[in-house]
Design a protein that fits this description.
This protein is of the alpha/beta class. The protein binds uridine-5'-diphosphate-xylopyranose.
Length: about 450
């Protein structure tokens, strides 16, 4: 099938590459010409494991352009995957979405076209995009206007495992009020639904994946599924963090508690890792947007609100723990291990590390930091922040009063902790992710603290 994708961020690029890989003809469009030039030269603007390999394999079916006139007329399916960054009120900024819809309306050729919202957009956006498309077509000569149907196809991909999540998803959700649109999307995703494509060697098909469930529903339900899924995951994390607070008081081990409840198949083991809480571009933005949408309907969402409050309190607890341990923070040196919001990405959006660094700087702490891949991006995006970045963990530890493990990069598990302890002024480590081996650290002479 002929597919156009508007926006080459995480979602758009991953979707485009995967659809091209399974055999569709895909044209990816971005209005950022420098990005398109780089992509044409095979350079990937984001860090995502295996994306460059898959892009190379899919390249015979993949084109990149900045021109709507080139991407849209031949496309049968057009995905909108542009950014919807949060505004101060919590509601997402829909400017890029409306620009994309208008441009699609202006350039669409005659015939039936499905326009798919892949960006996370407020409930009701499908109808709104439909009206923008129709407006943009007004005044065109009779018989030249396309017949648009709008669909929602939310993504559930996690940064760092975006390709795996796209090729072997837990489910595919499609929503539209027109059956024809659902049929087109079903044909598009058939190779993934039936798992008939040959798996790349570097992304083998998991033994448990034979076929992927399809949820085919109406537009509003598909839109709400995305928000409800992210809100539920976010509150699952906040719930275990709330239990962590209590566990600390009563002398329970929160990792054991999470294991004990997660083995109940009604609860499930994932997203129960206690620690400094969630970050990233989705959970914060989507829970805020959900609350904003609900308030337009005169509703409060107290559970979602509580999950957000608790998440922000987890960052404060890092500072409280350090203050309790070191008594005075002003003039201290503290090293952060990890800057990215989670491992296997260089994304710093709503990264706990950045928030914690700012809180420490505000209290007069000298902050040093290490990250295996996000340092360059940190300097680009937080140029004014007085944080000294280091080449490795040993260098970061030099003269530190404490280290804080913020991002659980696998390479932090097996470090020479004895050597690191010797570099520090006081060998204290606060494990923000319940990730390190407490006994091993104690043997290396480190005082181990956890954030429960
Ligand atoms: C998320 C959703 O998982 C994905 O389905 C959605 O479409 C986009 O948002 P992502 O933001 O890439 O994906 O990251 P995710 O792996 O979900 O982690 C989010 C944050 O939660 C990270 O900061 C992570 O460290 C934290 N987290 C995750 C926990 O604190 N505890 C956990 O148990 C799991």
């Amino acid at each position: 099938m002929q597919v156009a994708i508007i926006g080459t961020g995480y979602v758009g690029l991953t979707t485009g590459v995967c659809l091209a890989f399974i055999g569709h003809q895909v044209c990816c469009l971005d209005t950022d010409e420098a990005k398109i030039r780089a992509l044409k030269a095979g350079k990937i603007p984001i860090y995502e494991p295996n994306l460059s390999e898959l892009l190379e394999e899919a390249s015979p079916n993949l084109r990149f352009t900045s021109s709507y006139a080139e991407a849209i007329p031949s496309a049968e399916i057009i995905f909108i995957a542009v950014g919807t960054p949060p505004t101060p009120s919590g509601a997402p900024n829909l400017e890029y979405l409306s620009q994309a819809a208008r441009s699609i309306g202006q350039h669409g050729a005659a015939g039936f076209k499905v326009v798919v919202n892949k960006s996370t957009v407020p409930i009701g956006s499908g109808n709104w995009v439909g009206s923008l498309l129709r407006e943009a077509c007004e005044g065109r000569e009779a018989g030249t206007s396309p017949e648009f149907a709008v669909a929602s196809n939310p993504e559930f991909l996690r940064e760092g495992s975006a390709l795996h999540d796209s090729l072997y998803p837990d489910r595919i959700v499609i929503g539209a009020d027109e059956t024809r649109a659902l049929e087109v999307l079903y044909s598009l995703y058939r190779p993934i639904l039936d798992q008939t494509f040959s798996a790349p060697t570097y992304l083998p098909r998991p033994d448990t994946v034979y076929a992927v469930p399809l949820v085919s529903t109406d537009l509003a339900s598909a839109e709400l599924i995305k928000y409800a899924a992210n809100a539920f995951l976010a509150l699952k994390i906040s719930f275990i963090n709330e239990m962590g607070l209590l566990a600390e008081r009563v002398g329970a081990n929160i990792t054991e508690v999470a294991r004990g409840i997660g083995l109940d198949s009604r609860i499930g083991p994932r997203f129960l890792s206690a620690g400094i809480g969630w970050g990233g571009s989705c959970f914060g933005k989507d829970t805020a947007a959900l609350i904003a949408t609900a308030s337009e309907y005169g509703l409060n969402l107290p559970i979602v609100e509580a999950a957000r409050k608790l998440n922000s309190r987890q960052r404060d607890r890092v500072v409280e723990k350090l203050l309790h341990e070191l008594k005075i923070l002003k003039g201290r040196t503290i090293g952060l291990l990890g800057l990215a919001f989670k491992p296997n990405t260089d994304d710093l959006r709503e990264s706990p590390a950045v928030e914690i660094a700012q809180k420490l700087v505000d209290r007069g702490v000298r902050v040093r930091a290490h990250d295996p891949i996000a340092v360059e991006r940190f300097h680009r995006e937080h140029a004014g922040m007085p944080v000294q970045t280091c080449e490795n963990v040993c260098e970061t530890a030099e003269g530190c009063d404490a280290l804080v493990l913020v991002t659980e990069w696998s390479e932090y598990r097996d470090l020479d902790w004895e050597a690191i302890a010797k570099k520090m002024r006081t060998p204290v480590i606060l494990d923000g992710r319940h990730f390190l081996d407490r006994d091993k650290l104690a043997r290396a002479g480190m005082r181990y603290l956890a954030i429960s």
